[in-house]
Specification:
There is one protein chain. This protein has 11 helices and 24 strands. By secondary structure, the chain is an alpha+beta fold. The relative contact order is 0.11. The N terminus is likely disordered.
Length: about 425
């Protein structure tokens, strides 16, 4: 299929600028010409301490970190009014130049004094238009022109306030800004509605999973009592060394399960010599004994994405030792945290080595499991949960497509390649 590329070069009604080709009635302005920096310190005022989270925007520190982290620095925080902006100089993989968000609340909030805060000229700027422009990372290249020596020791980009306000922005006529913002906001509303639906589906899925796996909800066609068995009566340990020198090094991700480090981190972080790593095959399980978000007692994941892969020998690896058990059932069993109570009983509180729970492999394989011995009941439970999970996956796929469509539309609207009628 031939790719059609829309060009604005030398097109009638467009002009060449330092930001590329833009409509003739658009301007290129310095941020400092349309913005006023905000430096009002909180002092003794009682304001909610906020953080800026890349991809999410303003989040209360108490929610993000479990507590307010301002401490003695609170008095030096900046008091940020509604409908103004803050720039977080912290870089991340998705937002290497930091992130800028509009303050969405109807009252003043407090933000760390390392943030650059500003308001826009209402006579020349539509806040929602520029919020979309900043969301689009459109100023990434501009910002990097003024960043000196990359990232500081505290993880913030080395960019001072004066240079920040030198960045250049496109400035369409105010009425056109309003119309563009209105269109893109409608897409945001659709995305937000779908995100809320996915969140509700995930809550339902987790509740359904737990209730089915503790036997609180029983399927009508099954009535036999569930049984207790030791872990080692159902699973056997895997100690298979990586003699074939497989280079697919895996890590455990809450969202993606056992995933290649190359796919997850976009780089390899394991040691060069992986011959002592454990070789896993598709359908086998690994337990990471270290705490991770959502998994206070470690996470157990099944290898689903690849035919083979290798994990650190610090992981406890295992597989089903017979065919009279449903692998999908156990995948959900572990995901629901059904082992947490047993793990907590055998793991020594506070005794950790490099962040790992202090528990022996022998104790792990002697844990008790409560489950339906009837293979058909296991399969039926797994089928129900597979359908529920599939529905969430389809909704997430739809969400990603919607975001990509909006991103493509943003690129054209925010550069003037597509004009809107005012």
């Amino acid at each position: 299929m031939t790719e059609v590329i829309e060009k604005t070069e030398n097109k009638k009604g467009y002009k060449k600028t330092k930001l590329g080709w833009i409509p003739e009635d658009w301007e290129v302005v310095k941020l400092g010409n349309i913005a006023t920096e905000i430096k009002d310190k909180v002092g003794t005022k009682q304001r909610t301490p906020m953080s800026l989270s890349a991809g999410k925007g303003f989040v209360a520190q108490a929610k993000k970190f479990g507590k307010d982290i301002a401490g003695k620095q609170y008095a030096q925080y900046t008091c940020l009014p509604p409908r103004t902006f803050a720039y977080n100089k912290g870089n991340s993989l998705k937002y290497p130049q930091g992130c800028i968000y509009q303050q969405p609340f109807n009252e003043e909030v407090a933000v760390p004094n390392v943030f650059i805060c500003f308001s826009l000229d209402k006579n020349r700027c539509n806040n929602n238009f520029y919020e979309q422009l900043f969301k689009n990372n459109a100023q990434g290249k501009e910002l990097f022109k003024y960043i000196n020596s990359g990232v500081r020791n505290d993880g913030l980009l080395n960019l001072n306030d004066n240079n920040f306000f030198k960045i250049k922005l496109v400035s369409p006529p105010l009425k056109e800004q309003e119309k563009i913002a209105e269109i893109l906001s409608a897409w945001d509303d659709g995305i937000e509605t779908l995100e809320k639906l996915i969140e509700q589906k995930e809550i339902f899925h987790k509740a359904l999973m737990k209730n089915l796996l503790i036997g609180k909800i029983r399927l009508s066609e099954f009535s036999s009592k569930w049984t207790h068995s030791k872990f080692n009566s159902i699973f056997e340990r895997i100690t298979r060394k990586n003699e074939e020198l497989n280079s697919n090094i895996l890590t455990i991700s809450a969202q993606n399960g056992l995933i290649s480090q190359k796919d997850f981190y976009n780089k390899r972080i394991a040691s060069v010599d992986t011959s002592k790593y454990i070789l896993l095959k598709n359908g086998e399980f690994a337990y990471n004994k270290s705490y991770s978000n959502g998994y206070p007692l470690g996470a157990i994941k099944r290898l689903d994405l690849y035919e083979k892969g290798v994990v650190s020998s610090l992981y406890i690896c295992f597989k089903l030792n017979n065919t009279n058990s449903c692998s999908d059932f156990w995948k959900y069993y572990f995901e629901a945290g059904m082992l947490n109570r047993e793990i907590k009983m055998i793991a020594q509180e506070g005794a950790r080595n490099h962040g790992l729970l202090n528990m022996s492999t022998e104790d792990f394989f002697n844990m008790l499991l409560l489950y339906p011995k009837d293979l058909k009941e296991q399969q039926k439970i797994a089928d129900i949960l597979n359908k529920s999970e599939k529905e969430i996956q389809l909704l997430n796929s739809k969400l990603e497509k919607l975001k990509e469509q909006k991103k493509g539309l943003m690129q054209k609207l925010l550069t003037g390649k597509i004009r809107v009628k005012v």
